[in-house]
Automatic annotation (TrEMBL), chain B:
Residues 31-209 form the AAA+ ATPase domain. It comes from the Bacteria. SUPFAM superfamilies: P-loop containing nucleoside triphosphate hydrolases (SSF52540). This is MoxR family ATPase. GO terms for molecular function: ATP binding; ATP hydrolysis activity. It comes from Umezawaea endophytica. InterPro entries: AAA+_ATPase, ATPase_dyneun-rel_AAA, CbbQ/NirQ/NorQ/GpvN, P-loop_NTPase. Pfam families: AAA_5.
Amino acid sequence: MLTGYVGFARALRRAGVGCGPDRVRAYVAAVEHLDPGRRDDLYWAGRLTLCGEPDDLPRYDAAFDAWFGGVEPRRVERRKPLATRLASLNGGAEQDGRTGRLATAASDVEVLRHKDIAGLTAAEKAHLGELIAALEPVPPRRRALRTRKAKSGVPDASRTLRAMLAAGGEPAKPRYRRKGTRPRKVVLLIDVSGSMSPYADALLRFAHVVARAMPTEVCTLGTRLTRVSRQLGHRDAEFALTSAARAVPDYEGGTRLGETIKVFLDRWGQRGAARRAVVVVFSDGWERGDPALLGEQLARLRRLAHAVVWVNPHVGKAGYAPTQSGIIAALPHVDRLLAGHSLDTLRHLLKEINRA
Amino acid sequence: MTPDELAAELDRVGYLPDAGVTTAAFLALRMHRPLFCEGEPGTGKTSLALALAQAMSLPLIRLQCHEGIDASQALYDWDFPRQLLHLRALEAAADGALDPDAAEASLYTRRFLLARPLLRALEESPCVLLVDEVDRADDEFEAFLLEVLDTNAVTIPELGEIRALVPPIVILTSNRTREVHDALKRRCLYHWVDHPDLAREVAIIRRGLPGVSERLASQIAVAVGKLRELDLLKPPGVAESLDWARALSALGRTELDAETAAVTLGAVLKYREDATRAVASGVLG
């Protein structure tokens, strides 16, 4: 019978629920306390011990029905890592003769700084990755709730008393306290639809660097919303990017900005992720859905957030005019519209985030 | 005790559990594992802890988490002003012949220790410890909570280890404003609390407010159920249905019609956009 439970846990892992050995042990222990002959008990024992977030629940339900109904659940399709997929995207560029280290050595950092990311060769992209990793973001700060010691401010009774105690009970100079600061949250919403795909890798790299430096939520926008903060929280950039790419199901698909931003606000933003945060939306503003919905959702976002910055890779290019339906609907609710097509503009964006 | 008996006990104190909550609470008691409850606001996560404490006749110790909470607010703190007074008193009594070592030792004793909720729970166990809205606390606090929950003991440098004789029953709640770290969840039973089904919601309203008629209670439950499907900014929870029922009975209404609903909508929907959408959709009759 024990092998049956462990087998079920394995099937569940294949279905995408991250239940490690300790969860499986808790599961077996839970079944022992209950009556496994009852379907309800069997169901709840697993759901309480093997699942860890609401996204797990539908997978669990399907796996439970399949396993205890006799059919093994369908294997989740493995996705090619982002690196491989990007390589295939850049296949054309790589055949233009300027491949390998030579090209990297030749491409001057100064040139790369201002060059449009979409027009880079594979070697230049690899170099750009290193340059992005070397960025040093400084988090924006906000006033904290709690006070800390300071040169001036309100008198700090307990520290003054301690100083007096140290001086043997003699009067001491009064000490003061004042409200400190804490890093402000940053939310990055990255459009990974087809029209943004030349920038997606660089932007995710950028997001990884930001996420390592300050409290950050990262979500990708496309036909649906995917939260990749957890994947990008990993220290190793390549590992983080590969797992983020695996989590995004709608890479290079269409865009439904309004709907996905609404999902973000409903699931995360309204509850706290966007409150008092600096929100950065990376998108070219091509909206397949209803632009009115996008405007409405951005207005809502603007009310929650400390600042909303829209980064559009096309803004920096000559002859750009905000004509896309999405951008027109969004502009009234955006604090700043910035360019984001090159390393230099990303560096400028970091400054704007810090100043927001 | 069987799960059914536990359900009956919870029922007795006015909490109507479904199969999931019953099994979760039962396993938490049996396996001595903390129970991590997550779900929409107003689905009865906190009241489960209150009901469990009442049903088991155990004291409830509540730790409300907030941003910036730290060990001195959650675990213990030394009562500095009292220590100072004590020292002054010793000085006065000894009249210059104070033994500094003995004086210092007398300062760091249990009587000058202020026990905060976590330490109190360990000392007073068996009890129910409610760690409310753990998602509001910072990540560092989670790591610290993890240590206490794992060992059921606390080490105070000046005093030594304080260990719970019986592990307390721990219930953690989260509204999911932030993803809680997996290391914490892994040590807990995880229960996602959903809105109750129609029959249970009617029963909950009737139980909470016996003065409300069966007919009015089911009208409220049906209306709230429809509102939850409306794609609102904040779908109403059970707490809101109860508020609504309370508002209606305060007004002496026995029927939920469109006009009554419109004037009391503020009890259920807390956003202007939601109210407009609800009225426009016509689900209120």
